[in-house]
């Protein structure tokens, strides 16, 4: 049995944060109280009426509209969708559960279902929470008696006496359904909110809601996929039961996770205290350095001040002596009173020198010391900038981002990443990856240390999906993990080959690069000569080229890309027994009527052979054409797909199948049977201006050239 008190979290309305009262189911499948829906819509309408002003009623005493919801209401009101009296009322509703703007349709609240199941569970919770509080009879005279049963048809509670009075034996009311005392009354039949007289008997799989037959016939669900209510009930109940059984079977694992989370909570508390202490010590250390610098600067200023004051004081005393009857002048005046020439001359000579110096200093007065302390100004502009950038080291490095365009899976995985910012780049990186398995409960990440911004990963399993993430390191500082990127390995080991420049190679029409990894068909003078000889209804012949290595067994994959300007290209496989016929068939023209595998509707589907010694698919004009087969779609437009940037072919000789893949996502675009009794070769055909480039092996680009390439 489920403990009712243990599920209180699921019974709280996301708007009012209280137990649900008459909950309604929104189109996003979240439930919200009926009153809360109306109050949010009233606030929404008031915001429209007030033009999004701050004076609009943003909340009521009951409802607690979050700031994000009000921001969305204001955003919608300012987006130009303000209505006049002739336009329908707005049906947008900011769901407080998923934080999205939900369209309620033209009927608004009236088009929503009540969540009777949730309402019943809430009522059971209320009864468990207030077991001591009885439900009183609605019909007793005061004082009312405690009710013993509730009538679901009358939506009222009765004591035994009142129930007998209002449900007399032998009347229609005696057949009413009654249950134990409750305040939750739900209708016996769920009616359609769109068509109030119709009961719901179907389930729309697109909208995920019950509908009636009128909704399906001519309503908004006319073109939707529906199923019977009994089938939907059975299917959803089976799925929910299986999921619940799975969760219950993992009870020990859930408890282990809860224990782990409890430890993490305690560890978080301890680590936060350590972080606070470390931050406090760092700032105290920084403050200690500043205090030392401050004391040294103040001591230097004080010493300079004392020296300057001493010089200025001495200079002031010297000038004080130049005053009459004071100092040097007074002494000179006394010397002038001497009448003995020999004594006067003896004293006056030195005195005269001093008087001359005093006279000279008087004419060229200059203070003995500067009064300003410009040399002692502390320049802290750079330090202020550094302190302004002071932050925790976890934010000191930019989070790297894996570049999915430059990363690719082929014979090995090449993972490339970059940092959004140009400053504080990391010295090293750690790349982690793991294989995605549905059966595994938890993944074990494999770690690789990298000094550059790319890494080649070897020994990955074929036909598998891998998750990759990276973080940067600078000493002991590290960035958060990047967002995980999922890449898919090829469905089979990579088969390496080059274009064959001998077997059937037409050097007049085709041009190979020196490495024989690219071939180009030029629409030049030879094509004009060929077109001069062609007859009405046909085009010029295709120029074929094959790989220089054949396949006799096993499963293999190779990839290439076709230039966007290519007009017509055919790719696939051919058996060794058909190579000569392929190159020397004079009727080998790309006529839509002649080539049954050209991708065009030849009108001769009965002649299709599901097991041919060759299979070719048509590409061109940035399109991929699915060949005309009995199993192919009849509509020609549905057989035309966008041409992937890189195309792959997977040949399974053991099963006699060949598949054509989008080499970027490793998604199979088309698969057919092929006769692999002989040696199979990769085959290509070009006409007009076209070019094909074989996919370069990952290791070849980074100097890891091995014998298997």
UniProtKB/TrEMBL annotation:
Subcellular location(s) per record: Cytoplasm, Cytoskeleton
Biased composition (Low complexity): 55-70
Occurrences of domain Fibronectin type-III (ranges): 399-492
Span of domain COS: 336-393
GO biological process: acrosome reaction; spindle organization
Region (Disordered): 51-90, 589-608
Family stated for the protein in its record: Belongs to the TRIM/RBCC family.
Name the UniProt record assigns to this protein: TRI36 ligase
Organism of derivation: Sagittarius serpentarius (Secretary bird)
Lineage of producing organism: Eukaryota, Metazoa, Chordata, Craniata, Vertebrata
